[in-house]
């Protein structure tokens, strides 16, 4: 990712992967849960999947590497919440195994990209940190 070319959060691969997961949840999982009258679980997985992209976007808007990383950490927590809810759906026989596997794949992709983005943010913060002064040359 090149800092000069990124203008909005929409260009971030982490946000794009999170968006794919969110759209998958809304298009493939939520309709099945509503059909089976699992409204609470439907609401929880919708909110968690939204939280992934919301936190990535909010962090990007902070223009501070470590603050951004903190929001990405929140996004990663929400991402894991989505995975737990997918597991619950499978365990309770609310979704078929192939749909769970597809969701798990989107989780894995998003997690990998998000972790890479967070590593980049941390490295960038270290490069930006002031260096300690050099000792006097007569020491």
Q: What topology emerges from the helices and strands here?
A:
Blueprint: H1 13-35, H2 39-60, H3 65-91, H4 97-128
Helix pairs in contact: 1-2, 1-4, 2-3, 3-4
Question: Care to describe what's here?
Answer:
The protein has 139 residues and is mostly helical. It has one domain: 23S rRNA-intervening sequence (de novo design (two linked rop proteins), Up-down Bundle). The chain is built from four helices and no strands. Helix 2 runs antiparallel to helix 3 and helix 3 runs antiparallel to helix 4. The model has no long low-confidence stretch (mean pLDDT 92).
Helix content: over 70%
What's the mean pLDDT score? 92
The rough form would be described as elongated
> What fraction strand?
under 5%
> Termini, distance in Å?
42 Å
- For CATH, the homologous superfamily is named as 23S rRNA-intervening sequence
Assembly type of the chains comes to: single chain
CATH class: Mainly Alpha
The CATH architecture can be named as Up-down Bundle
Largest sheet: none
Explain briefly what this protein structure is.
The chain is 75% helix and 0% strand. The chain has 139 residues and is an all-alpha fold.
Quickly list its features.
4 helices, mainly alpha, single chain, 139 residues, 75% helix, de novo design (two linked rop proteins)
């Amino acid at each position: 990712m090149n800092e000069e070319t990124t203008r909005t959060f929409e260009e971030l691969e982490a946000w794009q992967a999170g968006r794919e997961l969110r759209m998958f949840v809304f298009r493939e999982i939520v309709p099945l849960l509503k059909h089976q009258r699992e409204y609470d679980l439907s609401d929880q997985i919708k909110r968690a999947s939204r939280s992934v992209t919301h936190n990535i976007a909010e962090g990007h808007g902070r223009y501070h590497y470590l603050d951004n990383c903190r929001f990405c950490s929140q996004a990663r927590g929400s991402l894991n919440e989505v995975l737990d809810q997918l597991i619950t759906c499978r365990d309770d026989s609310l979704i078929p195994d192939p749909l769970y596997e597809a969701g798990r794949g989107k989780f894995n992709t998003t997690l990998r990209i998000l972790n890479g983005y967070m590593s980049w943010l941390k490295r960038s913060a270290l490069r930006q940190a002031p260096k300690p002064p050099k000792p006097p040359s007569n020491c």
